[in-house]
Design brief:
The complex is a heterodimer of chains A (113) and B (113). Chain A has 113 residues and is an all-beta fold. Helices cover 0% and strands 50% of the residues of chain A. In chain A, strands 2, 4, 5, 6, 9, 10 and 11 form a seven-stranded mixed β-sheet that branches. In chain A, strands 1-3-8-7 form a four-stranded antiparallel β-sheet, with no helix packed on it. The chains are: A mainly beta (113), B mainly beta (113). Chains A and B meet through strand 4 and strand 5 of A and strand 4, strand 5, strand 9 and strand 10 of B.
Chain lengths: 113, 113
């Protein structure tokens, strides 16, 4: 069974540019989560999808971040325009039902210069 | 105040040592307590979980929760070089907290030959 995959693994962009991160959850997992780790800080929750619906987006830092989940399958997280403080590792996780056991992808390392 | 506090380390021990990793948390409503392990350039992976107070053992690993003092521990016996990783404590609420994991900053462990 394939795990959670994320693309790209690393992205370097300039301040003001746009970046789109993609996550493919484990097949059959209706629940998809985005988390972010800024250097030196803990991994923090961004949002939670159930199928294509946003269940909880309380962790989204501001309106420069837009998450979508097309047809309840893969998800994208777009940052527009990117700021320096957006640098960090963005993790995607999925689970069949909402629970503490979430399967994480390897993360996308975003560097904004 | 952070909801989950964890000493970031790094912690270096010789092979075969007993390792003790610890976290404290602030929200007495937390009910599930997890330890995730993260190898370099990988996503976190659930190692163990405990519901409410008590101990849970799995091979060389023992997770312990003391809700009266809001203290979470992970003990690793007969540590191996393959245990070298970052260990993240996390909490999860069943009701009212959304379906999100709340992480500590992680403790980097190195087990040396």
């Amino acid at each position: 069974e394939a795990g959670v995959t994320q693309f790209p693994s690393h992205s370097v962009i300039e301040k003001g540019q746009t970046v789109t991160l993609r996550c493919d959850p484990i097949s059959g997992h209706d629940n998809l989560y985005w988390y972010r780790r800024v250097m030196g800080k803990e991994i923090k929750f961004l949002l939670h999808f159930v199928k294509e619906s946003k269940q909880d987006e309380s962790g989204m830092p501001n309106n420069r971040f837009l998450a979508e989940r097309t047809g309840g399958t893969y998800s994208t997280l777009k940052v527009q325009p990117a700021e320096l403080e957006d640098s960090g590792v963005y993790f995607c996780a999925s689970s069949q039902v909402p629970r503490y056991e979430q399967y994480f992808g390897p993360g996308t390392r975003l560097t904004v210069t | 105040q952070k909801e989950v506090e964890q000493d970031p380390g790094p912690l270096s021990v010789p092979e075969g040592a007993i390792v003790s990793l610890n976290c404290t948390y602030s929200n007495s409503a937390f009910q599930y307590f997890m330890w995730y392990r993260q190898y370099s350039r990988k996503g976190p992976e659930l190692l163990m979980y405990t519901y409410s107070s008590g101990n849970k053992e799995d091979g060389r690993f023992t997770a312990q929760v003391d809700k009266s003092s809001k203290y979470i521990s992970l003990f690793i016996r007969d540590s191996q070089p393959s245990d070298s990783a970052t260990y993240l404590c996390a909490t999860w609420l069943v009701w009212g907290g959304g379906n999100k994991l709340t992480f500590g900053t992680g403790t980097q462990l190195k087990v040396e030959l």
